[in-house]
Structure formats: C-alpha cells, structure tokens
Amino acid sequence: MWEIQGNVLRDLAALNRAETLPWDNWGLIPVHYDELPHADLDLLDRVAAVSAAGGPLPVSEAAYASDPRIPAPSSAP
Asked: How far apart are CA 29 and CA 71, in angstroms?
C-alpha cells in the first residue's frame, strides 16, 4: 500500500504537469501507510478517484491544490 500511496500522488502531480521521479518523496509520501490517520487515508482515496478518472483538468487542479501535502515541490533554479 505504501508504494501505491506514493504513485497516487505522483499520478495526480503528472495530471497537473509536474514532472516527478519514482523515488521523489514529499507530503504524505514518506509517511508509511499504516501510520496515516483516517483523515489522511480519506484524502488519498479522494485523490485516487480523481487520478483514476484522468481529469477533467479543473477537477484534477482543484484536487491538487486542496491540501499543501499533495503538490510536488517546485524545483529551485
């Protein structure tokens, strides 16, 4: 489940034109799935539903901006 958790967030990032790598960790990704509170599991379920649907863009953008732990960090120049 921990790998799926990271892939769900990376998929949503990709839908929002953020390039990530399989080993990138941010927000909820480094927290082991078994240690997440129910509210975070519910958040991941909502993100997974949006990611699985593949859009539409306004829906994926809203989901991506819904919590500060979801967006991939921007890289500094």
From this structure: 11
- Nearest one of 7, 35, 11 to 23, comparing CA atoms: 7
How many Cβ atoms from other residues are within 10 Å of residue 65's Cβ? 11
The pTM (predicted TM-score) of the whole model is 0.87
pLDDT digits 0-9 by tens, 21-69 = 999 999 999 999 999 999 999 999 999 999 888 767 889 999 999 999 9
Rounded CA-CA distance 27/44 in Å is: 12
Phi/psi-derived region of residue 26, left when phi > 0, alpha when psi is between -120 and 50, beta in every other case:
beta
